[in-house]
Specification:
The chain is of the alpha/beta class. The protein is 43% helix and 19% strand. It is globular, with a radius of gyration of 20 Å.
């Protein structure tokens, strides 16, 4: 009996790469599905590595309708990831999402798994109505739900990997290091090791009927940035603290053109939660749905203790 084709868009990135690798390495899923990765550049090392593991590699851009149609030929299930930060256009992200959903329906794809986010406007009751990378995905999700195709929605938490880059501790001038943000010290944020994406999407792939119509909030738990600072401090032997700073001061530190977008996102986290005011319950329940146990913050920091030590050297 031939395997069903599972197509993964964005497979050279963090989410798509995790999904493709997980399915290729899962004993049960790899017997049922062959993996087709759809990437913009087939020459990337990540694409070649997946090909070496047995993935079929196709080149296609989300804006290239004929190539997307070709990529979805004969596909049973597709994992779709769009990236607002490639172009900073909510309208373009929605257009890409709608186009691929329509093509999936036309090509007879049976199950669509979409990497989504909740609506910041709805969570905040209109207080934060211009966090475009949230609301663009939420609008796309609403459209997909209305199409005649079985669908499920993967909501990733904030990446733990960001503590090596955007959220990293910086020298505080007194020998210690500080993580700074506009959130309160006790603001809880769902944090996710992004390489765990496959654990959640793999569960959806294994049981489409169970997950059809559902959104799954992906994170092992919710943590404060103060807890993160403490964990990094314990792992490195350095003093690491968390400091809340005023909104305007924090936004001024953000990249030009993204001050309001990212500042609004963190204010949403502080005032309403990434997944809403009931996010602790949702995250806890959804973590049980993962095909393997998600990586906790403590496990992640311990695993990467040397890298954090080097970062603070």
């Amino acid at each position: 009996m031939s395997k069903k084709i599972f197509a993964v868009f964005g497979a050279t990135g963090n989410q798509g790469g995790s999904v493709a690798n997980f399915v290729l390495e899962d004993e049960e899923l790899s017997k049922s599905y062959s993996v087709r990765i759809v990437v913009r550049n087939t020459a990337k090392p990540a694409a070649r590595e997946l090909a070496a593991k047995g993935a079929e590699v196709l080149e296609a851009d989300l804006d290239d309708e004929p190539r997307v149609r070709e990529a979805l030929q004969g596909v049973h299930t597709v994992f779709v990831l769009t990236n607002f930060f490639d172009h900073l256009s909510k309208a373009r992200e929605i257009e890409q999402s709608k186009k691929i959903a329509d093509i999936a329906v036309a090509q007879g794809v049976e199950f669509l798994i979409y990497s989504s986010l909740p609506s910041a406007a709805k969570i905040s009751d209109g207080v934060y109505n211009d966090v475009q990378h949230f609301d663009g995905k939420a609008d796309s999700e609403e459209y997909i739900r209305g199409r005649p195709i079985k669908s499920a929605f993967y909501w990733p938490g904030c990446y733990m990997q960001n503590f090596f880059s955007d959220f990293r501790p910086y020298p505080a001038g007194d020998g210690s290091f500080a993580i700074t943000n506009l959130m309160k010290p006790d603001t809880l944020v769902p944090l996710l090791d992004i390489t765990d994406t496959g654990k959640y999407v793999g569960a959806m792939l294994a049981d489409p009927s169970k997950f059809s119509g559902r959104d799954i909030a992906a994170a092992p738990s919710c943590y404060s940035f103060e807890e993160v600072a403490q964990e990094i401090g314990k792992a490195t032997g350095r003093k690491v603290v968390y400091r809340q700073i005023p909104d305007d001061q924090f936004k001024a530190m953000l990249p030009e053109g993204l001050q309001e977008e990212l500042g609004g996102m963190f204010a949403l986290f502080r005032d309403f939660g990434l997944f809403g005011t009931d996010q602790k319950t949702k995250v806890s329940e959804d973590a049980k749905e993962a095909r393997q146990k998600p990586t906790s913050l403590q496990e992640y920091v311990t695993k990467h203790a040397k890298e954090f030590t080097d970062l603070l050297s």
